Amino acid sequence: MASPLEGGADALLLDLPRGPLQAYRARASFCWKELVLFLEGEDVLRLKKTIFSTLENDPLFARSHEEDISLDRYRELSFLRCKRIMEYNLLPLEDMVANPLWFQVFTNCLGMYDWSLAIRLLLNMVTFGLAIYNLGSERHLKYLPKIFNMEIFGCFAVTELSHGSNAKAIRTTAHYDPITQEFIIHSPDFEAAKFWVGNMGKTATHAVVFAQLYTPEGQCHGLHPFVVQIRNPKTLLPMPGVMIGDMGKKVGLNGIDNGFAMFHKVRIPRQDLLNRNGEVTLEGTYVTPFKDDRQRFGASLGTLSMGRVAIVGMSTVNLKLAVSIALRFSATRCQFGPSDEEEVPVLEYQMQQWRLLPYLAAVYALDHFSKSLFLDLVDLQQGLMGKDQSARQAELGREIHALVSASKPLASWTAQKGIQECREACGGHGYLAVNRLGDLRNDNDPNCTYEGDNNILLQQTSSYLLSLLASRIEQSPLKTVDFLEAYPEILGQRFSCPSINSCLDSSVPLAAYEWLVCYLLLESYQKLNEEKRSGRNDFEARNNSQVYYCRPLALAFLELTVVRRFHEYTHQPSVPPPLRAILGRLSALYALWTLSQHMALLYQAERRCGCPGGRDRPSR
Amino acid sequence: MASPLEGGADALLLDLPRGPLQAYRARASFCWKELVLFLEGEDVLRLKKTIFSTLENDPLFARSHEEDISLDRYRELSFLRCKRIMEYNLLPLEDMVANPLWFQVFTNCLGMYDWSLAIRLLLNMVTFGLAIYNLGSERHLKYLPKIFNMEIFGCFAVTELSHGSNAKAIRTTAHYDPITQEFIIHSPDFEAAKFWVGNMGKTATHAVVFAQLYTPEGQCHGLHPFVVQIRNPKTLLPMPGVMIGDMGKKVGLNGIDNGFAMFHKVRIPRQDLLNRNGEVTLEGTYVTPFKDDRQRFGASLGTLSMGRVAIVGMSTVNLKLAVSIALRFSATRCQFGPSDEEEVPVLEYQMQQWRLLPYLAAVYALDHFSKSLFLDLVDLQQGLMGKDQSARQAELGREIHALVSASKPLASWTAQKGIQECREACGGHGYLAVNRLGDLRNDNDPNCTYEGDNNILLQQTSSYLLSLLASRIEQSPLKTVDFLEAYPEILGQRFSCPSINSCLDSSVPLAAYEWLVCYLLLESYQKLNEEKRSGRNDFEARNNSQVYYCRPLALAFLELTVVRRFHEYTHQPSVPPPLRAILGRLSALYALWTLSQHMALLYQAERRCGCPGGRDRPSR
C-alpha cells in the first residue's frame, strides 16, 4: 500500500527490506507507516531515529558475540556505555522539561538495546538524582550537575539483606553527634547490610542511604534518607568504614553491578540528611513538617513511584520485542500442511494465533497505558515541585499510587507470561541464546519482584478501592474510580449481547469489567468484615482476604483502567479513518482476552449474585 | 518425633542439622523418615546414597564458583563428568535389568546435580544406544559395549534446521550405491542441516542419522536410521565430508554441546543402516516387514517415547528442587507482622501458601506418576524385546503413546509455572544466580519444546481418545480409558457434595474429572464434525478443533490419570497408618487444585449440558 505520509515523516520511516516477511506485509489492511505516525508522532520518531543511529554508529555499542563475555567485562562495558550516553546528551534537559514523555521514549530505546545500560542510567539520574531533588532542599542542589557530568555516580539504598518489602523494619542507623555536627551511619549486623543496590557493586561513588534517625537523647525518628559517599571517585576504592561488594551473578541484568554495603560508624556532615520531610538542627532537635510519622514515611517513599512507572514501560518494551520476534518467526517458519508436499507458515494455525495474537494486542494497550500513566506521574511531580498543597494534589497522589501499585504487577506479569509463550512458540530456535527470548525473560523477571513485590503492591490498590466504599470522593482527579459511585446500579445490570459480532467492540468487555470490579469490591469488603467478625485482627483479616478477593480486585481494576484508556484512545475522533478498524480490533482483542481470564469468576458471580442487593453492604 | 525405623534404613537417613528450619520440622504431624522410606524403599535409598556420596567425594564434581565459567569449559567439564560417571559404573547393567526403575533413580540423581551431565549421559546411553538396539539388528550389537566403555560417544540426529515437529519432511538423503555397497549420506542444502543435536557440537564420535532412503532405481522409501561416524575418536576432528559445529549459547543446559552437521556425500557401509524396520539387499532391493510406510515410520520413531518419559522425570525433579528451595526460604524469611516489633515467617501468609503448597502436592503426585509411567514403558519395551506380536502389546503401545504424549506437556508446564512461582516467591533472593531457581527454570525450559513440542504432542493424546469413541476396545492394558465405556452414564451424573469437608478427599475431584473428560471428548467430537460438515478437510478441521476442545481434552485426561494413580497409591491398604492423613491431604490438594483450573469450563458445561443426551452423539 502506498504511503499517505508527508515528506518529513516518510523520510523517518524507511521502507522495510524485501524478505521472507514481504508476503504477509503486503496483506496488511492498513499502512503501517500511518499507524506508527499516529501512535508516536513525528517528533518522537525523530528522537528515536537519533538515538538508534547514535548506538549503531558507535562501536562501543556493537554486539560482538558477547555471548561468552565475563561478568566483570559486561559490567564494565555497560558502565562505559552509560557514561557515553550521558556524554552524548541525546536528550538535553530543556527538551526533557518541555516534553517529559521524551524521557520515557529515551530510556525505552536504550532498554530495547539493553536494559542493563538503561537501568544503570535510570538508577543514577532518576532514582538517585530525583531522590536528592525530591527529598532534599536547596543545599543538595549542588549534587545535580555532578550527576549529569558524571563527576559522581549514584545509587539508592533502601533494601537490606533481611528486609525489603517491609521497609519500616530497616535497621541501618544514623545517630546525630551535635559535637561534630555529623551523622554516624552504622549497620548493626550483617542482616542490616544494604543489599541488592544497583550500581553499588562496582561503580557508584555516592548512595542515598535510608537509615533510622536517632537524635542525641536517644529517640528514634524513623527512616530518613542521607547522601553518603561510598567510594573515592578517582580510585573507586571504598571510603573508610564502608565495606562494599558485588552480589555476583544474577538470573539476568548482569550488566548491572548490584551490590551490598555495611557501614561501620561512617561519619557524614549534618547537611547530607535529605531534609525535605525531616530535619535535625545544629543542636540536635528533630523538626518535621508532618504531623504523624506514617505520613512522613509515605512522603519519603513516594519517590519510588517513578521507578514503578518505569517498570511498566520496561515490561511493555520486553513484551513488544518478544512478540515481534515470535510473530516474525511464525510467519516464516513452515511446518506441516494439508498434504505432505505443501507446508504452511505456523502463523496460519489457530493454535499459534491463539497463543500469540492476544499478546500483540496487549503490547498496544499497555504501551498506550504506560505513556498515559507516565504523564499522570509528571502531573503529580509538577504539583510536588510547585508545592501544591491542594486537596486535588493529595487525591491525585493517592489515585496514582493505587494505579501504579497494580500497573507494575499487571505489566510485568503480562510480559513474563507473554515472553514465555513466545519462547515456546518459537520451539527450539526460541531456546538459542542469540534469538534473545531467554535474555528478555531473564531481564524482565525482576520486574515482578523489585521496587515492591507484585503481590504486596496489589494490596495498596485494593486498600485504596476499599477505602472509597467507606468515604466517597466527589470525583477522582483521573476519573478511574468514578464509576464506583454507581456500583449498586452497575451490579443490578445483566450482561446481554444479541450476537457474537456485537461483542467485538471493547465497549462490551468494558461494561463487564465495571460489573466485575464492583462485584469483587463488595465481595472483598464482605470477606474482610467476616474475618473481623470472627475475631481476627486487622493484620490477619487483611492477609486472609487476599487470595480470592483483594488480589483479583486490584488486578481487575487495573485491567479495566487499561481497557478503558485504550478503548477511549482507539475510539477518539482524531483516529485517522483508515486506522479505525485495526485499532478497534486490537482494543477488542485485548479487552476480551483479558476479561476471559475471569470467566470462572463471572460464572460464579452470576450464581451468587442472583440478587445483588440481598447481601452485606457498606453504609456510607 | 522419634524414628520408628529399623536400623538399616535409619542409618541411610541421617537426622537433619539443627538450624532455622528446626521449629517447623518439629511441628510435623508425621515422621519424615517413615514417609521417605515408604515412597522410596530401602534399596533405592541405598542407591541414592551411593550416587550422592560418589559425587560429594570426587573433586571433579565440586561446584567451585562456576558462575563465570566459559561455555567451552562448562561443556568440557560436563563431558569429563559424564565419562567419570560411566567409569564409576554406579549402576551395573545387571542391576539395571533386574530393577529397571533404578535407572530412573540414577539419572534423576545426576540431574539433581546438573541436567547437562545427566542428559549427556542419557543421550549417549539411551537415545543413541537404545536406538541402535531397538532399530538395528545382530550386526549392530558390536556398538553397545563400545558405548559403555566410552570408546565411542553417540548422538541422535533427527531434527533439521527447517524441520523438527514435522519429522516426515526431513530432507537429508541416503542413496544406496550397489557397486560399493555403501549408502551416501547427503544434506541437499543448509536448511537440511541436522540441528540441535545434543553431544554433537564438540564430543560425539557417532550419530544415528535419520535420512530419506533411496534405492538405486531412484525410489524413496522414507526416513530410515543410519549409524554414521562423524568424528575421529582420537583427534575429535570431523570425518571427511562432515561439516560439524556447536550451536553456541542456549538459554540453559549449556553443559551440553548441541550441534549441527551437514553431510557432503559421506559414504557409510550398507551394514550401518539400522535395519529392524527396513533393509536394503546387497543388490539394492528394499525389504520391510511393514505393510504401510506410516506403520514403519511410527515404529522407527517409537523409540522417542523413552526420551519423553525421561522428561517427565526431569520436570518433576526440577519442580521438587525449586519447591524445596522456596519453602525453606519461606519458613525462615520473616517480613511484616501484626505489630511493628513482631515479624512472621512469610510461609505463614495465606498468599504464600496458596502460591507454593499446591506445587508441593504436585511434586508428590507427579513423582509417583513418573515412576509408574516409566514402569509401563519398561513393560512395553520388554514386549518389544521379546518380539511380542499380541493384540495386547499393540494396544499397550497405543495407550502408552497417548499417555506419554500428554505427560510430557503436563509435567514440563507444571514445572515451568511452579519454578517461576518459586522464583518470585523468594523475591530478590530468588533472582540471585547462586540460589539456583534461574538455572532450574532455564534448564527445565526445553522440556516444553524438545522431543516433541508440547502442543503438537497433545494432539496425539486427543486423537487416541477420539478414536475410542469410534471403535471401542474391550479393556485397555493400563485401564486408563476404561471409564469412557460408561460415558453416557457419567455425563448424566451431577456433582453433589454435602459439605466442604466431604470434598477433601481426592475421590471427589476424581469423579469430577471423569465427567469433565467425557464432556470434553464429546465436545471435541462434535466440534470436529461441525468443522467437517462446514466443508473443511481433515487437516483444517483438526487444526480448528485444538484450542478450546482437543487441547484441554488431552490435558484433562492426563490430569485425571495422574490424580487417579496418586489417589489409588495413597489410599492402598499398604500405606502405613501414620502416613495416611498426610498422603491423603497431598492427594486431595493436587486433585482439587488442578481441577480448579477448569472451573470456567465446568460452569460452562453445566449451562450447556442441561440435557447431555440432547446433542450430537457418536454411534458405535
User: Shape of chain A from CA axes?
Assistant: globular
- Give the mean pLDDT of chain A: 92
The low-pLDDT segments of chain A are 611-616
| End-to-end CA span of chain A | 58 Å
Percentage of β-strand residues of chain A: 5-15%
Report the oligomer.
homodimer
| Helix/strand/pairing category of chain A | alpha+beta
Largest interface: A-B, 69 and 70 residues
Gyration radius of chain A, in Å: 26 Å
Number of helices, counting only DSSP H or I runs of 4 residues or more of chain A = 21
Reported for the largest beta sheet of chain A, the result is: 6 strands, mixed
Helical fraction of chain A: 40-55%
Number of extended strands of chain A = 11
Cofactor (chains A, B): FAD
GO molecular function, one term (chains A, B): FAD binding
Pathway (chains A, B): Lipid metabolism; peroxisomal fatty acid beta-oxidation
Organism (chains A, B): Canis lupus familiaris
